[in-house]
UniProtKB/TrEMBL annotation:
Belongs to the class I-like SAM-binding methyltransferase superfamily. MenG/UbiE family. It is a peripheral membrane protein. This is 2-methoxy-6-polyprenyl-1,4-benzoquinol methylase, mitochondrial. Transmembrane segments: none annotated. It comes from Brassica napus. It holds the Pfam family Ubie_methyltran. Its EC number is 2.1.1.201. Component of a multi-subunit COQ enzyme complex. Methyltransferase required for the conversion of 2-polyprenyl-6-methoxy-1,4-benzoquinol (DDMQH2) to 2-polyprenyl-3-methyl-6-methoxy-1,4-benzoquinol (DMQH2).
Amino acid sequence: HATRFQQIKEEEKSKLVGNVFTNVASSYDIMNDVMSAGLHRLWKERLVGKLSPFAGMKHLDVAGGTGDVAFRIFDAFNSVKRRALRKVDEASHEETQIYVCDINPNMLNVGKQRPAERGLSDNRSLVWVEGDAEALSFDDNSMDGYTIAFGIRNVTHIEKAIAEAYRVLKRGGRFLCLELSHVDIPVIPNLGELIAGDRDSYQYLVESVRRFPPQERFAKMIGDAGFEKVEYENLVGGVVAIHSAIKL
Ligand code: SAM
């Protein structure tokens, strides 16, 4: 059915998305837990489990928001480091960088406070960068990995975001995308209103899921951008999907 969200002009979309996440930034993390009954944690673990962190890696998490995925990658890297038989020298540790890129500075600011809250002093590996998925500020062939979780459906031109992922990845670099599939859960906007006091923001999120291409079509878009070994895995029967691809 037609809603006012479907009539929004493209140039207005970025601004709207900005407003949505500014309105919910402070309650974003708790919203995630409530709305997915904590399941988003398992889905993100599954996403991060598909990466192979190593000392000196450069990873880019786009639409990284409050850094929920980036912190998990950081933890995965640290546990690999602890398990390693030979001590990873400090020099290579220094070089390990996980960039959290998001268009909304409010989301990034919430994330920047999190290391202190977790009692983490060493957060030099995390770099917070304000930027648009469609026009990344990173060099060509500069990243070992790229993740985007619950982000790409908010992007105005999905093709541009995929093309940018391809551009910044090194050869052999992995693209991973975690995204909601087509579900219609009318209770979500009401919960959004309850917690964030902002029904419109969550109505927008529900609409954005509805308009996102189905798994097969999205996989084809990734392949069309030049990626190889395009695969996807449905979780919870397709409520959520992880698309994976490699730049060869
Ligand atoms: N990845 C985080 C997570 O899973 O917890 C945050 C997901 S949140 C649902 C979506 C994020 O996408 C917001 O922080 C929003 O600011 C960001 N975003 C929306 N459009 C964007 C764009 N064009 N470029 C970069 N980030 C964008």
